[in-house]
Structure formats: C-alpha cells, structure tokens
Specification:
Elements: H1 2-8, H2 15-23, H3 30-52, H4 54-62, H5 68-121, H6 124-128, H7 132-174, H8 176-223, H9 225-230, H10 234-284, H11 290-332, E1 344-348, E2 351-355, E3 361-363, E4 368-375, E5 384-391, E6 396-401, H12 407-414, E7 422-427, E8 430-431, H13 437-442, E9 444-447, E10 456-457, H14 458-463, H15 471-480, H16 484-488, E11 497-498, H17 507-521, E12 525-529, H18 537-550, E13 556-559, E14 571-576, E15 579-584, H19 586-592, H20 595-606
Parallel strand pairs: 6-13, 6-14, 9-12, 12-13
Antiparallel strand pairs: 1-2, 2-3, 4-5, 4-7, 7-8, 10-11, 14-15
Helix pairs in contact: 2-11, 3-5, 3-7, 4-5, 4-11, 5-7, 7-8, 7-11, 8-10, 8-11, 10-11, 15-17, 19-20
Length: about 600
C-alpha cells in the first residue's frame, strides 16, 4: 500500500519553495509575528552591543591619562550598562520564544484544519489505496516536525542570521584587515553547509516517507493482531517489519550523520581562525586602542562561530520539518474529488424530486440502469465488462457470485465512489455523472459488511444516518432493525457509550446498529452489502421484514453470499469475472439448473 501512496504524492518541491509556502501561514498571526520580530531585533542588538562593550572596557583599563577615580566611575558605568544589556537580552529572549510558541500554535491549528478539510474532499479511492497508519502520519510525525520548525527552528535561525549580519558589520567597523581572514572562513563555511544541505534534504525526505510506511504497517498489524496470532505469523510479521524498519533506520542514520558533522567541522574551523586572528592581529594592529579592537574582534569571531554553528544545528530539524511539510503540501495539492453534476435532490415531505439545471423536476423513483458499462480499478485489469442491467422502482435486486466477481464494485459505481471508463449508468433516466455527488449519495442508504461505529452513545451512532433525527426517530429505526431489544438491555440503554469501534458489542449487535442507522436516514434507495452476514437466521428474517416495510416502493440492492437471503429478490444477478452469466428470480434460476442452481443446491446440502 505504501507504493500506492507514493504514486499519489506529488514530487517534492525544493526546500526553499516549501519554506516560503509555509511562511504564508504567518498571515494568521501577523501581529504576534511582528511583535516577535521586534523582540528578535532588540535581542540581537543587545547581544551584539554587549560584545562591543568589551572594547571601551579594555581601552579604559589601558588608559593612563585619566585619574584613577574617573577610571573607576566609567568602569562601573560600563559594567552597569553591560548588565542592562544582558537583562534586556533575557527579557526579549523570553518574549520572542513565548510569542513564537503562540504563533506556531495558531498556524498548526490552521494547518491541521486545512489538512483535515482537504481529506474530506479527496475521493474514496485515495483511502482505499493508503493505510490508516500512513494517513495518520501526516497528523503526527509530519505535523509535529513542522510545529518544531515554526516554534523553535525559525526563531533560532532568525536570531542567528540577524546576529551574524550584525557581527559581520561590527567586524568591518573594527578592522578591515582582520575581516579579510573572516572572508576565507565564510567561503569555507558556505561550501560545507551547501554540500551537507543537499545530502540531508534527500535523506530527510526518505526518512519521512519510510516513517509513514512503518506507521502504516504497525497500524495494520495491530488491527489484525488476532489473525496474526490465529495463523501464527508472528515471525513473518517481524521479518516484514524488520525490512521497512531497517529502511527507516538507514535513512534516519544518514540524515543525522550528515547534519551532525557540520557542528564539529565549523567548531574546529572557528578555533583555527581564532588562533590565526589572534596571532596576525598582534602584528597588524598597533597604536592606541589596538588591544581593545583585537579583544573585541576575537569576541565577535566567537559570536560568528557560535551563530554559524547554531545555524548548522538547525538544519537537522529544518530538513526534517521541510520533509514533513512537503508531504503535507503534497496532500493539499492533490485534486479534490470532482463533481461536475448539476442535478440536485429536493425533499417534499417523504417524497423526493430530482431538480434539473433548468428548474424542471423528475420524481425520484429508484430506477437504476447499467448500459454496457466497463470498469477497472487498474488499467488493463477489467473488473466489469459490458455490464448491462436494470432495477425498476421498488424492486429488490440481488447480486451473487464468487469473491472478486464485481458485486461490491457495482454498488461503488452507483454512488460514484468510482467512475466508469465507458458505458452509462442512469438513475431515473438521469446520467449519474449529471447528479451532484452529495445529493446522489444522500438518496442511498448503505449498510456494509464491515461496520464502523464512532465513539459516542448508541443513540448518537444511530442518529449519524440523519443528524436532524429525533430520539423517537432513532428508536423507531432501531425497532425496524430489530436492535431495540438488545439496546434496551445495555447498561445505559440508548445512552450507552461505545468505544474502540463498538468493541463492547458483539459483531451482530454492531451490524444491527448500522442497519438502524440506514433506516433512520430514510434514504429512498437501500444498498445492503452482506448487511445481515453477522446475525442469526431468525434475526435476519425480522430485519428483512422491517427493511421491506421501510423500503416499500423503493429500490433495494442486496449483495449476499448466503443464498437463502436472496430467495425473495425480484431479480437475482449471478456474476462471474465481471459479467452477468445468469439473471432471473429464484424459481427461474433453479429451473435453469445452471450456476445458481449448483450454488444453491450445494448450499442446501451443506446446511
């Protein structure tokens, strides 16, 4: 599945373009950012000025012209001024960190909201092709890395860069000769940083990609832990995990190794140039104040080396964060699920009409037709071939066949989770591609074999089918689905809280709640994909009676492996390799003594 994710992921932009795009989010905290930048400027000026105070202090100590009492007075004044600068640095350092923390929190809120909103607009195929773990990694490792960048790395980078510029300026003021030495140091630093940045950027992209693969695999194995233990695949699972975990280890090691080399290299370079400057400065600088200039210049060399070292140290988190930001922007740049439909659904009491673009209306009757439909999930591997069928209003249509025959695919095409390659699907004579997707899906009530319940009460889970439904509507739907009895016997009845996807209920009970959810939606058309597979035969019969009453006059599509559940269908479609090989009602198909007959009689003999 991770390979599919890479196919959907847009090629990463350059780190600089990603950083500039991330900077646009500062518009959400513009005033906070301005205050933080002012604090940074004051902080850097105070730190640079505190280093410059060393020059008059040394000059004062060397001076023999002033009286002793004046020397002490000026010396005390300089010390007090230095203490004031240090205090100012401490205060502004606290302010800038506090303000950037608040600003990053605002940006993270906006970024999470934008990412979550984007994922609501992506097609179902995107979720089919990516594991939950890999998707969650966007909200965990990628978001956290980006937050670290905004909260600390950018702040430190701004401080370091501004201080570096200010330090260079003060060096020029102090001595052009000594500054020539720094030009050589600067050239070497640029070469080292540029080389390592290219390598680390690639490594951190690989690290984030492999981290998503590891998260996806872990999530999948945890969810399927029961099956792993049943089939005793623990060793195989560990072997497979070791492969992707080793890939993450290699990428992480390469990234951190490259970035961790920068600091020691620059630190050693600073020591070398510090010694050279000291030795050369003693020879080059002569006259009054030479000692103050040299000592102050050496202090600025220390500042220069420290700031460059801090910048290099930030590359670790910056490259990691930019790799995460690139992945997030890759999702944000993906095209939304297209919806070119113009026909909308309008409800009048318990009746529904299709409202055309010109204002004319067509009653929703539930007439669904496939005409020569071809479809494939992957190009070159057809799932449906020349599929033609019809479902008249009020009919119950059943699809049977082996796994992979295309039964579920038909229902996915009706609600346009996927679009067909050729042919036509009409709904009450309207091409489904002309109907707005939200309205199309609102007209369909779907109960899937894999039931998903949300954290919340039983009542809230039933109401999910129609948010405006009253408690009475939900209870009535539960009675139709034959769920009212067991719900009434739960510890808190309809107010019982469900958790972990309804882990405190049996599979059959979860299925009944899902059916009640579909019932409360009052959708004109119902699709049951193995909806009664987890309930006993008696309950199944009661549910079918309730659903027949609910969907009277509407179309019902049923997908079933248990053929006993489709005996009363108006039409049964037998599928094989994406084609309908038999169709008719139960008695007609039994009389034909074809595939359905063999499936049914084998089932009867087995039971």
């Amino acid at each position: 599945m991770a390979k599919v994710e890479l196919r959907n992921y847009r090629k990463a932009q350059t780190p600089m373009r990603t950083l500039l795009r991330l900077f646009r989010y500062f518009k959400h905290c513009r005033m906070i950012l301005i205050s933080a930048v002012v604090s940074i400027l004051v902080y850097t000026v105070a730190t640079i000025a505190s280093s410059y105070v060393m020059r008059p202090l040394v000059d004062l100590l060397e001076s023999s012209l002033l009286p002793q009492n004046e020397v002490y007075a000026k010396y005390l004044a300089l010390l007090l001024g230095l203490a004031g600068l240090y205090l100012l640095s401490a205060v502004t350092n606290y302010l800038l960190n506090r303000l950037m923390l608040e600003c990053s929190a605002v940006i993270m809120r906006e970024l999470r909201t934008e990412l979550f909103c984007k994922m609501q607009k992506l097609p179902v195929s995107y979720y089919d092709e990516n594991t939950n773990g890999s998707l969650m990694s966007y909200y965990t490792s990628d978001i956290e890395a980006t937050n670290e960048l905004l909260q600390h790395s950018i702040t430190q980078m701004l401080i370091s860069v501004i201080s570096l510029v200010g330090t260079i300026g003060m060096m020029l003021v102090l001595s052009m000769k000594l500054f020539a030495i720094m030009v050589v140091l600067g050239a070497i630093v640029v070469i080292v940083v540029r080389t390592t940045t290219k390598i680390s950027a690639r490594s951190y992209r690989a690290q984030q990609k492999n981290a998503a693969a590891v998260n996806g695999y872990i999530e999948e194995m945890i969810a399927g832990q029961r099956d792993v233990k049943v089939f005793t695949h623990e060793k195989q699972v560990m072997q497979d995990f070791s492969v992707i975990n080793e890939a993450l280890y290699d990428a992480s090691t390469t990234a951190t190794t490259v970035t961790s080399m920068i600091g020691p290299i620059l630190n050693n370079l600073s020591h070398i140039f510090y010694a050279l400057t000291c030795a050369i400065g003693v020879v080059w600088l002569t006259g009054e104040g030479a000692g103050g200039i040299l000592i102050t210049f050496l202090q600025y060399i220390r500042n220069f080396a420290n700031r460059v070292s801090q910048i290099s140290e930030q590359f670790n988190s910056i490259m990691l964060a930019l790799a995460g930001a690139e992945r997030i922007f890759g999702v944000l740049d993906m095209p939304n699920e297209t919806d070119e439909g113009t026909v909308r659904l309008e409800q009048r009491g318990r009746e529904y009409d299709w409202v055309m673009a010109d204002g004319s209306t067509v009653p929703l009757r539930g007439d669904v037709r496939f005409r020569d439909v071809d479809f494939s999930y992957v190009e070159g591997k057809p799932v449906l071939q020349g599929m033609s069928l019809y479902a008249k209003p009020g009919q119950k249509i059943a699809f049977v066949g082996s796994t992979g025959a295309g039964k579920t695919t038909i229902t996915n095409l009706i609600n346009r989770f996927y679009d067909i390659q050729s042919g036509q699907i009409t709904y009450d004579g309207i091409d489904v591609r002309e109907i707005k997707k939200d309205d199309l899906r609102r007209s369909l009530g779907i109960v899937l074999q894999d039931t998903h319940l949300f954290t919340g009460t039983v009542m809230e889970n039933i109401r999910y089918g129609r948010l405006e439904a009253t408690d009475e509507d939900c209870i009535r739907a539960a009675k139709i689905a034959n769920a009212h009895y067991f719900i009434s016997h739960l510890p808190d009845g309809y107010e019982t809280v469900l958790y972990s996807d309804g882990a405190n209920l049996s599979q059959g009970q979860r299925q009944l709640i899902a059916i009640a959810r579909a019932a409360v939606s009052e959708a004109p058309v119902l699709i049951l994909d193995e909806a009664t597979s987890s309930v006993d035969t008696r309950t199944e019969k009661l549910i079918e009676r309730g659903l027949d009453a609910l969907m009277h006059g509407r179309t019902v599509f049923v997908i079933a492996h248990r053929l006993s559940t489709v005996r009363n269908a108006d039409a049964i479609m037998v599928l094989e390799k994406g084609k309908i090989i038999e169709r008719g009602n139960h008695h007609d198909l039994i009389a034909q003594k074809g595939t359905y007959y063999r499936l049914y009689t084998n089932m009867t003999e087995l039971t």
